Amino acid sequence: MELIDNKYKIQGIPVEQLREQFGTPLYVYDAEHIRGQIRKFREGFSTVDLHIKYACKALTNINILKLMLREGLGLDTVSLPELRMGLHVGFKPQEIVFTPNAVDFSEIEEAVALGAKINIENLSNLERFGQKYGGSVPVCIRLNPHIAAQANSEKVDWWHKQSKFGISIDQVGDVKALEEKYNLHIDGIHIHSSSVIMSPEIFINGAKAVFDIALQFQNLDFIDFGGGIKVDVGDGNPVIDVVELGKQLDVVFSDFCQKYGRRLQLWFEPGRYLVGNAGTLLTTCVLRKRNGGSEFVGLNSGFNHLIRPMFYNAYHEIVNASNPTGSTETYTVVGNICEIDNFAVDRELHQVREGDLIAIRSAGAYGYSMASTYNSRYRPAEVLVINGEAKLIRQRDTYEDLLRNQVEIELD
Known about the structure:
By secondary structure, the chain is of the alpha/beta class. The protein contains 13 helices and 21 strands.
């Protein structure tokens, strides 16, 4: 979304026009921005065999998946429905990696039957996998690499100690024992790239630690550095320079492959990086009020549509698309859910009037995918702007949708 000629536009379409056509609240995604992020991610990696797997938990609309497929990406999934959606839109099973967390082993069995690439993050399921498949089905191992000792250690150490993800590196010996016991075919090493790692230098140091572990496994085809890479949302916090990271990791990974004895694939699983800033939640100001010394802007949306500000204290830039050049005032921007429901507190916006179109930016990732019908309110519609045309890709919920799976019984 860009301010052009004093109007906010997405690929040349004024957002006011989108409100007139589709109503609010409305999620709008910019396909060209997604394409640009993919190009940027690839830019730094010039010599390695790079494979990008879109982490679809960020935004699972099948049309977004189709766009990723058309751009040559694979898919990272964490549930069987995500996996099935990937197959539905045309991803080949071998292009989909399945990385569940704390699931019954039957889910892994079903993913194997569907042909997906299996990524296991705990010793319990790895043992079951060995008992069931031996070395007949390749498996990737998800590690928690404990890279906290490198730099920025306090924040990174906190992330790793509270994280439930991955097999601890102090259990690599246990993994090797299971590999030998069941003749496992371990073909990949995976880590999750924590979003608290903000510089290529810290990332590279962590990568070197992973490479040292990888040398213990002789049948690898790839190293997977996962996702978690942030985008600049305008809050002034640092973000990792992906192009610079690519340039540095390109060299280090090539050196590792030479040491390993053959060229491996390098995988990443970005989600928010690709779609976060591509999405905007369009809302309407339905209420202006003053209470206790605060000026409130009430929207026709709430944390049932975008939970990140309340759940994570996440920052989202908010703009008054109806009055982009007016004088500024300080507001608390709130939703219509029947409890504390803040999008922003004490935020400077151009003067807001009832009826103004209020746009919440950086809402492409973990917006609609975490939406609910709390308070029995409908989930928004979704629109994809692609090649200069706005296309509806999900209808707004209706009252019938709220009742769809309820079973009415006779009460005595």
